[in-house]
């Protein structure tokens, strides 16, 4: 088995500040937690930005540029910039930071889908900021849009245009077929980095059979031309990424995907989650990939060829 690449999704656009005092919001907090995650063993850092005044997800490239250079200066991790942004952001806004930064890696959701965050309202009754409740409530009628035209545009402008490769986020088996379609059209180049996602309302449920089926289908569609990774939402995070690693995959953790370290225990940092999964993987006699090894495994363009 090849070495396991640990990705860490540092803040995301799913959770709101009232849910955890440890969720990084300001550029300084995002940088600090990203660097800590890298020091703990994350080879890839997946990054979103937030309004430092109230923690609301932001697509402003200037905010990204307040933490990207600092992270790059402090560690060698691969910096993976979102193209998903946050709820309600138009495509051009979602792409703005990645087009400015020209990263080695960017996330790419492989299809349009319902994206339901509103069940969190059952657990979170009080909010520090006015936008938080509305943000969660509105997800009941929110469709995350990535049409075939959108995907083609992103692959052409950011992929071919900037030399950026992608973490292909596959929330359903249909997303794997969408990716196979673009592979057939030679709009994506192997090795593909396929992230199978479980446990988010609107996507594939967190069921062991679904994880095994996703791997079988990816093997069928992509053969030796891909690297598989697993992430899961909330309480499913650690069990599912561990199962993914046992089945030959890479793993993703981070406060974007889960705020917890264990049952009822908030993670105090992204580094705590990275340390926990690293310990599990090493106990299973799996080796952890360095950033340099991750670059080689994924055939990335290198940190000297980014725009920050």
Automatic annotation (TrEMBL):
One GO MF term: metal ion binding
UniProt cross-references to InterPro entries, sorted A to Z: Aldolase_TIM, BKACE
Keywords: Metal-binding, Transferase, Zinc
Heme among keywords: no
Cofactor(s) it depends on: Zn(2+)
Top-rank taxon: Bacteria
PANTHER family according to UniProt: 3-KETO-5-AMINOHEXANOATE CLEAVAGE ENZYME (PTHR37418:SF2), 3-KETO-5-AMINOHEXANOATE CLEAVAGE ENZYME-RELATED (PTHR37418)
Name this protein carries in UniProt: 3-keto-5-aminohexanoate cleavage protein
Originating species: Croceicoccus mobilis
């Amino acid at each position: 088995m090849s070495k396991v690449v640990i990705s860490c999704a540092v803040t995301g656009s799913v959770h709101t500040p009232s849910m955890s005092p440890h969720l990084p919001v300001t550029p300084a907090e995002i940088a600090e937690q990203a660097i800590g995650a890298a020091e703990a063993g994350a080879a890839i850092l997946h990054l979103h930005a937030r309004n430092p005044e109230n923690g609301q997800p932001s697509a402003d490239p200037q905010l990204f540029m307040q933490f990207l250079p600092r992270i790059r200066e402090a560690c060698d991790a691969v910096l993976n910039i979102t193209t998903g942004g946050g709820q309600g952001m138009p495509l051009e806004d979602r792409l703005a930071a990645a087009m400015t930064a020209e990263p080695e890696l960017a996330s790419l959701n492989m299809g349009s889908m319902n994206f339901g965050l509103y069940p969190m309202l059952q657990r979170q009754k009080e909010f520090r900021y006015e936008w938080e409740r509305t943000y969660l409530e509105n997800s009941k009628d929110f469709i995350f849009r990535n049409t075939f035209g959108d995907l083609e545009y992103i692959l052409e402008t950011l992929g071919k245009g900037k030399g950026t490769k992608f973490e292909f986020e596959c929330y359903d088996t249909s997303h794997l077929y969408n990716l196979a379609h673009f592979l057939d059209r030679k709009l994506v180049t192997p090795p593909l980095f396929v992230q199978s996602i479980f446990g988010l309302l609107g996507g594939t449920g967190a069921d062991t059979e679904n994880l095994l089926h996703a791997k079988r289908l990816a093997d069928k569609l992509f053969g030796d031309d891909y690297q598989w990774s697993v992430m899961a939402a909330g309480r499913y995070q650690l069990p599912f990424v561990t199962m993914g690693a046992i089945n030959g995959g890479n793993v993703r953790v981070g406060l974007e995907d889960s705020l917890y370290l264990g049952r009822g225990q908030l993670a105090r940092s992204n580094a705590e989650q990275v340390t926990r999964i690293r310990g599990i993987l090493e106990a299973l006699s799996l080796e952890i990939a360095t950033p340099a090894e991750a670059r080689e495994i994924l055939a990335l363009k290198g940190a000297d060829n980014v725009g920050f």
